[in-house]
From TrEMBL:
Pfam families: AP_endonuc_2 (PF01261). One of its GO terms (molecular function) is endonuclease activity. InterPro entries: IolE/XylAMocC-like, Xyl_isomerase-like_sf, Xyl_isomerase-like_TIM-brl. Gene3D superfamilies: Divalent-metal-dependent TIM barrel enzymes. This is Family 2 AP endonuclease. Keywords: Endonuclease, Hydrolase, Nuclease. It comes from Brevibacillus panacihumi W25. Residues 22-249 form the Xylose isomerase-like TIM barrel domain.
Length: 285
């Protein structure tokens, strides 16, 4: 099965949805991963589709004209004081555009509130035909695979799953063997990127790399293949923010390079080869 790729919003940070879709189509992506949930960050454009009918119309037309599909929307953060219904308009827009998933992460230390809010988010998404993928982030409250699994096992929602980001998985120092205990159906898409092997000791440096300086797949020190090939074949959303390169190359060429380098990497690290190595290790043990 050929890998499918999505162009994630942070890779072309600030790019309008319709333009992003056209860039993805020209570069050869199968999907886009949009951010119609306005987060109010400094300098962040508001691409809320539910609040902007003209932008919704342009986005729908771009998807129809190009054949690119909407993979997921972001970011349904769980934070103190959140009313999950805040995300309903964005999820309705995603469903109207044929989207499949909603990306979420947890930024509150109140476990009970996090569980209740995430469960409600899943319940709101289900009638729309959407699944909700929980991502662990090294600078967030839920920062490890174990933390995500705790939430998923507690909420017991059949449209909930886990979303692995290569940068975050490496920084959390989780082990690929831990992925074997995760129900296969909980994997629906992943975030693809690379980063230096050395894990920053400061939150500031961690945040800088996470948001502005990730690397092409195969360029850094993360053993991406060992992670990706350990789980089922699912779409890879390339989330690779690199401020310097995107400015130098422009959105279109940077997005193209992200895809080209990812495909080259996986051509050198096929799934069959990884499966053989895993079986050999088992025999040796």
């Amino acid at each position: 099965m050929n890998k499918q790729f999505s162009l994630a919003y942070l890779t072309v940070l600030g790019c309008p949805p319709d333009e992003m879709i056209e860039i993805a189509a020209r570069a050869g992506y199968d999907f886009v991963s949009l951010r119609p949930i306005y987060m109010g960050l400094p300098g962040e454009p508001n691409y809320s589709l539910s609040d902007n009918p003209d932008l919704m119309k342009k986005t729908k037309k771009a998807l129809s004209d190009t054949g690119v599909k909407l993979l997921d929307i972001e970011l349904a953060r769980i934070y103190d004081g959140l009313d999950p219904k805040r995300y309903l308009p964005a999820m309705e827009s995603a469903a109207e555009l044929g989207g499949r998933h909603v990306l979420s992460s947890i930024w509150t230390d109140d476990r009970n509130f996090a569980i209740e809010s995430f469960a409600e988010l899943c319940d709101l998404a289900k009638p729309l035909g959407l699944t909700v993928e929980l991502e662990f982030v090294p600078i967030a409250s839920v920062s490890t695979l174990a933390g995500v699994l705790d939430v998923l096992h507690t909420v017991k929602r059949d449209n909930a799953g886990v979303m692995l980001d290569m940068h975050h998985f490496h920084r959390s120092q989780d082990k690929v063997e831990d992925l074997d205990a995760v129900p296969r159906e909980w994997f629906r898409f992943l975030h693809l990127c690379d980063a230096p092997a050395e894990i920053p000791t400061s939150k500031e440096e961690m945040t800088h790399i996470l948001r502005e300086a990730r690397l092409y797949v195969g360029e850094g020190g993360i053993d991406v293949a060992s992670i990706v090939n350990r789980i089922p074949e699912i779409p890879c959303s390339i989330e690779l923010p690199n401020t310097q390169r995107s400015k130098e190359l422009g959105y279109a060429e940077f997005a193209r390079q992200c895809l080209v380098t990812a495909k080259e990497y996986f051509a050198k690290h096929p799934r069959e080869e990884q499966d053989t190595l895993d079986k050999k290790k088992l025999v040796e043990v």
